[in-house]
Design a protein that fits this description.
This protein is an alpha+beta fold. The protein has 17 helices and 8 strands.
Length: 402
C-alpha cells in the first residue's frame, strides 16, 4: 500500500549538514549548521570566527593615524561609515568642530557609498537566486562610475581613508562635481531599468514574496537595524531619529515598508533607499559651502588649476579641524558615536588616555546583530529558501567577525 507524503505515518530522520564555510553564497566564511527534516529547516546555528581579524585589538595597538586607514576594512563595502563613526567618536572626545564644507563632503561621499553597497548587494543577490547571467551586470555598470569618482577624490576605489579625525582628506578635483551631477541625473532611469527587470518578475516574486518574514517584535528584540528593520515597518534611521552632521539641513524621507517584512520588502526598501540617497547627494551639491571646486578657487582667489596645486585646495578652515600627521593624538576621555550605514547602525565606543594610541575600542557592527536573527527566519523554511533569506539580510562577514 502506498503512503501519501502528507501522511502522519511517514517517518523521516533528521539530518545535520554544514552549509559553508566555503559555500559561495554565504558571502564569506560563514558556517551554518542545519538540522533538516527532509528539506525543511528545523534548527540553524551560525558558526562565527572563521574571519576574525582582531580589529578592536589592533585599534588599541596602532596609532590613531594608522588605525584611520585600517578601519575601512571592517565593512569593506562601506568604508566611509566605519571611518565616520570612529572620527565622530574621537571628535566628541577632542571637542572638535568639523568645518561645514567637510561635513557636506562626508555626506556626499557616504551617500555615494550607500548606493555602491546596495548596488553590489542587488547584483550578487540575483546571482544567489539563480540569475547567473545578464541582470547582475546592470548594477555593476553604475557602481563602476561611482568608483571612478571615489578614486578621483580619495585615491582608492574601496578602502578610502578619506574621512579623517577632524574633517576630510581633500577637496574633489576639477570637474568632479559636474561628473557627479551627471550621474545623479541619469541614475533614476537606471533604477527604473532594474525594477523593470526584477520587481514584478514572476520567478523573483515566487522566491521572495512571503519568504523570510521578519516581524517587528522579533526585529526589535534582536537589535536589527538598517533596511532589514525598516522593511518591517519601523522607521529607525539615525539620520532622522538622532540627526548628525548636516542631515538636518537636507530634505529626505526614511523609506519603510508596510506590514511584516519579507524578503521582497527588504529588496524594495533598498531600491527606494538608492533613490533617496541620490536626492540627498543632489541637495548636498547645491548647498555645500563654497560650491564646486571651481567656484571655491574663485572664492579663494586662485582661478586656474595650475595655481596652488601643491596645497591641493585644503585650507584648514574649510576641510580639517585637526592637523593630520603620524603623531596625531586625541585628548583623554571617552566617547561614543554612531552613524547610519547601508546595513544599519554602526557605533564606535572609544577610550583615550591622551597618547597617540587609543586605550580601548569597542564596535557595534550592524551585520553581527542582523545575522543573529537568521535562525528565527530560517526555521520552517525549505532549504532552497536559505540563500534567498540569508542574502536579503545583506551580511558582510568581516563586519561580523571584526
Amino acid at each position: 500500500m502506498s503512503v501519501e507524503l502528507s501522511s502522519p505515518d511517514l517517518k523521516t530522520d533528521e539530518m545535520i549538514i554544514n552549509m559553508g564555510p566555503q559555500h559561495p553564497a554565504t558571502h564569506g566564511v560563514l558556517r551554518l549548521i542545519l538540522t533538516l527534516d527532509g528539506e525543511i529547516c528545523k534548527h540553524v546555528e551560525p558558526v562565527l570566527g572563521h574571519l576574525h581579524r582582531a580589529q578592536e585589538w589592533q585599534g588599541q595597538n596602532r596609532t590613531w593615524f594608522q588605525y584611520q586607514a585600517l578601519i575601512d576594512r571592517v565593512d569593506y563595502l562601506s568604508g566611509m561609515y566605519t571611518s565616520w563613526a570612529m572620527a565622530r567618536a574621537a571628535e566628541q572626545i577632542d571637542g572638535l568642530v568639523v568645518p561645514k564644507r567637510a561635513e557636506y563632503l562626508r555626506v556626499i561621499l557616504s551617500e555615494m557609498n550607500r548606493i555602491t553597497s546596495h548596488l553590489l548587494w542587488l547584483g550578487t543577490y540575483l546571482i544567489d537566486l539563480g540569475a547567473m547571467f545578464g541582470f547582475p551586470f546592470y548594477p555593476f555598470r553604475e557602481r563602476e562610475k561611482l568608483f571612478d569618482l571615489f578614486e578621483e577624490v580619495a585615491g582608492q576605489r574601496m578602502m578610502f581613508n578619506y574621512i579623517r579625525i577632524g574633517g576630510v582628506l581633500r577637496n574633489p578635483p576639477f570637474g568632479w562635481f559636474d561628473k557627479l551631477k551627471r550621474f545623479t541625473d541619469e541614475f533614476p532611469d537606471r533604477i527604473d531599468e532594474y525594477e523593470a527587470i526584477v520587481t514584478e518578475n514572476p520567478i523573483f516574486l515566487k522566491r521572495t514574496k512571503g519568504v523570510g518574514i521578519l516581524k517587528k517584535e522579533t526585529a526589535m528584540a534582536y537589535g536589527v537595524t538598517g533596511p532589514c528593520i525598516r522593511a518591517s515597518g519601523i522607521p529607525l534611521d539615525l539620520r532622522k531619529t538622532k540627526p548628525y552632521s548636516v542631515y538636518p539641513e537636507l530634505d529626505f524621507k526614511v523609506q519603510t515598508m508596510d506590514g511584516d517584512g519579507d524578503t521582497w520588502a527588504r529588496y524594495m526598501c533598498r531600491i527606494r533607499e538608492m533613490r533617496e540617497s541620490n536626492e540627498i547627494i543632489r541637495q548636498a551639491i547645491e548647498k555645500i559651502p563654497g560650491g564646486t571646486t571651481e567656484e571655491l578657487r574663485k572664492l579663494l582667489g586662485t582661478t586656474g588649476p595650475e595655481k596652488d596645486e601643491s596645497k591641493d585646495l585644503d585650507p584648514s578652515f574649510l576641510l580639517m579641524a585637526k592637523k593630520q600627521n603620524a603623531g596625531l593624538r586625541v585628548k583623554a576621555g571617552e566617547g561614543f558615536a554612531a552613524v547610519e550605514s547601508p546595513r544599519g547602525t554602526i557605533g564606535c565606543y572609544v577610550i583615550s588616555n591622551g597618547s597617540d594610541k587609543a586605550y580601548r575600542f569597542k564596535w557595534r557592527n550592524p551585520s553581527f546583530c542582523n545575522l543573529s536573527v537568521l535562525p528565527e527566519l530560517l526555521v520552517g523554511a525549505p532549504i532552497a529558501d536559505i540563500m534567498a533569506i540569508f542574502g536579503s539580510i545583506d551580511v558582510i562577514l568581516p563586519d561580523v567577525d571584526r
